[in-house]
Amino acid sequence: MLFNTIVLMVILSIFSLVLYIYMQHVIFLNPDNRLSEMSEQVKKRNLHEIQENNERETERRVAFLLWSSDKKLIKITPKKGLYTNDIDDFKPALSEGKAQTSQEVNGHAYRVMNVKNKGYIKDQDVSTIQLVLNVDSETQTLEHLAFLLIISAFIGLLLSLVAGLFLANRALVPIQKSWNKQVEFIADASHELRTPLSVMQTHLELLFRRPNHTIEQESENIYQSLNEVKRMTKLVSNLLTLARSDSSAQLLNKTVFNMRELVDKVANQFEPIFELKELHFTREIESLMCGGDQERLHQLCMILLDNAFKYTPPGESIHISLKKHHHSMTLIVKDTGIGIEAKDIPYVFDRFYRSDKSRARAEGGSGLGLAIAKWIVQAHDGEIKVFSRKNVGTEFHVKIPL
């Protein structure tokens, strides 16, 4: 930030300097041209004639200072061409030259040009004719310009500094949010992994305390340990999927297939489980061809039906439908389960988010399923929405372009 400000300050300074030099050249161009023309006339024409023409000028008049060879002022014409108090401060130059840099005398600015001369006035040798033109107005214009450039550069620098700080802070907002989510994700992942590891450690310690027991006698501890291994394996697999999706390394293997066959296959897998829980399961599936990753869409259906199974009490119903709508397919999974509270709906697709964590853990959930479902849908350029009412039921609507 400081480096950018310094660079901008240098750029503004260079720009202001170049602009000032250019405007100085433009502003003094007319006075210098006038002095140059007058000097040429002095060399080619009669000095007396030139002075008469100069007297008739309605604009600012050029003052002629006639100097002797011993640097004494012989005459000044016209007398009102210079301020009286300024005359004594002028000296003839040693050599003839172009218009000089503005010469400041008693607060007044002049442009001066010296012309060598060979002639006499009133029997006095005139060796140098000094042409002097008052440029107070031009100098004031340059001073105002310099003041405006300095103020503009300062205001520009100040505005850029304020804007830079604002944009930098604004740019840091998503980074800060991403960092917070990453910290929260790591904390939740550590917590989820610690739970099954603690359970496994407990059961394994029990096995070591009773070395004389048979496998049959310790089958319960072995079974619980295996369940936790399965749960941890599933959790690690889900974490790997999400990590790959974040790094854009998770590529889809898209093919064209019949979506109805895929949904029917998943529904058939869940149907016996629904019957054991005494859930009323219905389906309404149209035949349609879909271009997508068959494995990921299979995972999507599994997640949605598994979610409905976990949070639907016995005796309630689950319905899945697949329909074609214009150039998209719409997949709906609807249940009459416990529903989701309104305050929790905006967060259901967040990683590790569970409205009832104790119940979710008892059901074997890790809070990653819906986050993966959302990624799968978005990877297929689709959208997923949830509609739910507490103790009424939940609907997940998935819309994917065909």
Key terms:
five-stranded antiparallel sheet; Helix Hairpins; 12 strands; rod-shaped; 402 residues; Heat Shock Protein 90; five-stranded mixed sheet; alpha+beta; 3 domains
CATH topology of the largest domain: Heat Shock Protein 90
Backbone structural class: alpha+beta
- Sheet of most strands: 5 strands, antiparallel
- Identify the CATH architecture of the largest domain: 2-Layer Sandwich
Task: Pick out the low-confidence regions.
Answer: none
Distance between the termini: 48 Å
Tally of DSSP β-strands: 12
Helix tally equals: 8
Give a structural overview.
The chain has 402 residues and is α+β, with helices and mostly antiparallel strands. It has three domains: 133 residues; 85 residues, Signal transduction histidine kinase, dimerisation/phosphotransfer (DHp) domain (Helix Hairpins, Orthogonal Bundle); 148 residues, Histidine kinase-like ATPase, C-terminal domain (Heat Shock Protein 90), CATH 3.30.565. The chain is 51% helix and 22% strand. Strands 2-1-5-4-3 form a five-stranded antiparallel beta sheet. Strands 7-9-10-12-11 form a five-stranded mixed beta sheet, covered by helices on one side. Strand 3 and strand 4 form a beta hairpin. Helix 1 runs antiparallel to helix 3, helix 4 runs parallel beside helix 8 and helix 6 packs antiparallel against helix 8. The relative contact order is 0.07.
